[in-house]
Write a structure and sequence with these properties.
The chain has 425 residues and is mainly alpha-helical. Among the domains are: 28 residues, no CATH class; 198 residues, hpI Integrase, Chain A (Orthogonal Bundle); 67 residues, no CATH class. It contains 19 helices and nine strands. The strands form four sheets. Strands 7-8-9 form a three-stranded antiparallel beta sheet. The protein is elongated and about 95 Å long.
């Protein structure tokens, strides 16, 4: 009987894998499964057994102290050590990635200090956006991703092809997203946009200014780019007429297929993100992101951006709206191109410690590649050669500027304004 027990014990011990507690060597700073053997063979092989035994006790005490105290961080301590929010975001993200615990993190509903760990579902995976505020680049991802399809729809409509119900609905979603994510308009203001507001639009300083909700509490001035105005005009002239119900006329700019006004722009934006399998962002997210990005501007510039965010029934002129919109465009381009790396990139960067490369602004791009009526945009090889980024951000802005020049040239030559078309890039 005793022999059988010995055989069973030997068999079980042979298949069992030892579960050792890792202890860092205080000499070489490397984790060791058996610290005493490591010291005897490597770091303290010429020392006495008593000295090695004392070192083992010190290493074990250090390991226990780290487990008890070193793995826990306090968010308030991080804020005191690092005043810069972007650096705080980098550190918190890295600590969480390495398995540390960060206590006293502000809640997502805290207006003064947004949530440091906001989880946004994205399909089967999840992305972490620090401080509850994604960069402008993150919020406007939907505009960049859906733009090629919108360009294709514009071309089809101009050629006389009718869009299906799904495509027409998605086009309306994109127009609403443009007003929310590019011009920081609140959903209620988008819902209050009327057909008369659109027909009364006018050009000013290279932009198209439109008044939204005139005579109401949501009175707003918008300064659209030429491309945005052309895109919305395609919806107004090609898609919206098919949704008008003559039995129940409605003067809202955005109409559903039943002829009624859109009841929830926020829901439409969520559907647009779902169609492209992207994380959901709201008007509040993008407005917070603008507030963070505007911190690097001068005080007058910050006030101009704040005016664009806090629009109301005030005595303001079209030039104020144009100036603020231009500043906002510069923030949208530079907020993720400089030292303000998007939090989505930080979340996927892992442990990389490389800093984002500084990029030149669009004015330097235009200086290197002047815009003309019949000129050709620079190729990717030319852009990289002159030190500009490989993506199409400056390329698209160059084409939009060229389109604006061509349109102004044609308007000056023709006594009758031409029909506006949506440019495709």
């Amino acid at each position: 009987m005793a022999s059988r027990l010995v055989v069973v014990w030997c068999a079980s011990s042979a298949t069992r894998t030892p579960d050792r507690h890792l202890v860092h060597c205080l000499r070489c700073h490397k984790p060791q499964e058996c610290i005493s053997v490591h010291l005897a063979r490597v770091c303290m092989r010429s020392s006495t057994p008593e000295e090695r035994a004392a070192e083992v006790q010190s290493a074990k005490a250090s390991s226990k102290g780290w487990v008890r105290y070193g793995r826990n961080w306090d968010y308030n301590v991080i804020c005191k050590l690092i005043p810069d929010r972007c650096s705080q975001a980098n550190l918190v993200n890295e600590l969480l990635r390495r398995g540390f615990f960060v206590a006293n993190q502000p809640s997502e509903t805290d207006a003064e200090a947004p949530s440091p760990t906001r989880v946004v579902p994205s399909g089967p995976t999840q992305k972490f956006f620090l401080f509850g505020i994604a960069a402008l680049k993150d919020c406007q991802t939907i505009l960049r991703v859906a733009k090629p399809e919108i360009n294709r729809m514009c071309q089809d409509l101009e050629m006389g092809r009718k869009l299906g119900h799904r495509e027409s609905t998605m086009y309306r979603y994109y127009c609403e997203a443009t007003l929310v994510f590019a011009h920081m308009l609140r959903p209620i203001a988008v819902e209050s946009l009327t057909d008369s507001d659109w027909l009364d639009r006018f050009e000013h300083s290279g932009r198209v200014v439109i008044g939204v909700g005139r005579g109401t509490d949501t009175n707003t001035l918008l300064a659209l780019t030429q491309w945005e105005e052309a895109c919305l005009q395609v919806y107004f002239s090609k898609i919206r007429p098919g949704n008008i119900c003559h039995e129940k006329p409605c003067n809202a700019f955005f109409l559903v297929s039943s002829g009624e006004a859109v009841s929830s722009v926020s829901r439409d934006l969520k559907c647009l993100h779902d169609l492209h399998k992207l994380p959901h962002f709201t008007s509040q997210d993008v407005r917070r992101a603008v507030g963070i990005a505007a911190q690097k501007l001068t005080e007058p510039q910050r006030q101009a951006v704040q005016f664009y965010l806090d629009r109301g029934a005030r005595d303001v002129g079209p030039q104020d709206a144009v100036d603020a919109a231009v500043l906002l465009d510069s923030l949208c381009v530079n907020s993720s191109d400089d030292d303000h790396q998007s939090f989505a990139e930080l979340a996927t960067a892992g442990g990389s410690s490389s800093l984002p490369t500084a990029r030149k602004d669009f004015s330097a791009f235009v200086t290197s590649f002047p815009i003309s009526l019949d000129g050709q945009p620079p190729s990717k090889k030319q852009r990289v050669k002159y030190g500009f980024p490989e993506d199409r951000t400056f390329y698209d802005k160059w084409r939009v500027s060229q389109y604006a020049q061509r349109r102004e040239y044609l308007l000056g030559k023709s006594p009758n304004p031409p029909i506006q078309h949506c440019p495709a890039f």
